[in-house]
Amino acid sequence: MKKSKTTLLIVAAAVIFLAGITGSLFVLFAPKQSAVNIIQDGKTLMTLRLSEEKDRTFVLPYGDSSNTIEIKDGRIRVKDAQCPDKTCVHTGWLSSSAMPIVCLPNHLVISFADSEGEVDAVAE
Amino acid sequence: MKPRRLAELAVLTAVALIIFIIELQIPNPFPIPGVKLGLANIITVYAVYHYRAYETAMMVAVRLLLGSIFSGNIAALLYSASGSVCCLLGMLLLRKIIDERHLWLASVFGAVLHNTGQMLAAVAVTQTAQLFAYYPFLLVSGCLAGAFTGLCAQFIVPRLKKIKPKTK
Ligand SMILES: [Zn+2]
């Protein structure tokens, strides 16, 4: 009885693992878009059209901490941050529409905007 | 609680804390929030199978608190605590189903639950559902890291048995 349950759980673990791999691939290969939302504490601070943005850096303060955002050649990244883990900096340039840049300590999320496809179609 | 048992718990907690601090010094090759090996969980997995639930919970609580103070990342305490609560509850239930020879399996589920709890806390705190995009990566890393730490725990069980007289 115990043994068959263990087998079942091994299968369950394998399913979780494969689902994770499938999901990861899906996220990695999601196409990138040109509009980007910068969200802090659930509020959209700004929406940028990367292809039309000039190269620049700016600082987003958050309490005693801050994130330095860089826009260059139509790409965006967190160039520097005062957060303890620096994960947001190490993530590098925003590249997948499904995978945002996240700075958990500063509650900051930078992600491609959802409705971008439609907006683009109207604009062009 | 007997002094001997208390001392054992204290030593295990200290070991977990040391492992935690050492792991912090190793640069993480995966810049994804929440993805880490979690080597300190070797001790947690071991403790789940060798100590009472409240004893293990105490160990984990102390490690989380001191770990967040030592690493200077107190904000991360909320995420790691939610993860650990899920992980512990899950493993304490699984302890009844999975025997010790399959410690690695209990550890895999523990790690996946840990990452799930962490994820939910992060989405709640940032109020940003886009964070769920990281969930598949957390599942994969949870399975791999959980299996690894679980195997490590399985490896140390016979060694600890040699130096530890039967108390239970
Ligand atoms: Zn950060």
Indicate the mean pLDDT of chain B: 90
What's the oligomerization state? heterodimer
Overall mean pLDDT score of chain A? Answer: 85
Ligand kinds: zinc ion
Distance between the termini of chain B: 12 Å
Identify the CATH class of the largest domain in chain A.
Answer: Mainly Beta
Total beta strand runs of chain A: 7
Give me the count of strands of chain B.
Answer: 0
The CATH topology annotation of the largest domain in chain A reads as: mini-chromosome maintenance (MCM) complex, domain 2
| Largest sheet properties of chain A | 4 strands, antiparallel
Q: Pairing-aware structural class of the strands and helices of chain A?
A: alpha+beta
Helix content of chain A: 25-40%
Number of domains of chain B: 1
Using the coordinates above, name the CATH class of chain B.
Mainly Alpha
Largest interface: A-B, 36 and 36 residues
Number of helices of chain B: 6
Rounded Rg of chain A: 19 Å
Please estimate the helix content of chain B.
Answer: over 70%
General description of the model:
The complex is a heterodimer of chains A (124) and B (168). Chain A has 124 residues and is of the alpha+beta class. Chain A folds into 2 domains: 1-30; 35-112, mini-chromosome maintenance (MCM) complex, domain 2, CATH 2.60.320. Helices cover 32% and strands 35% of the residues of chain A. Chain A contains 3 helices and 7 strands. In chain A, the strands form 2 sheets. A 4-stranded antiparallel β-sheet of chain A has the order 2-1-7-6. Chain A has a 3-stranded antiparallel β-sheet with strand order 3-4-5. The longest helix of chain A has 27 residues, at 2-28. Chain A is elongated and about 60 Å long. Residues 116-124 of chain A have low confidence and may be disordered. Chain B has 168 residues and is mostly helical. Chain B has one domain (3-26, 34-158): Arp2/3 complex 21 kDa subunit ARPC3. Helix content of chain B is 74%, strand content 0%. Chain B contains 6 helices and no strands. Chain B is globular. The mean pLDDT of chain B is 90. At the A-B interface, helix 1, helix 2 and strand 7 of A face helix 4, helix 5 and helix 6 of B. Zinc ion is lined by residues 81, 83, 85-88, 103, 105-106 of chain A.
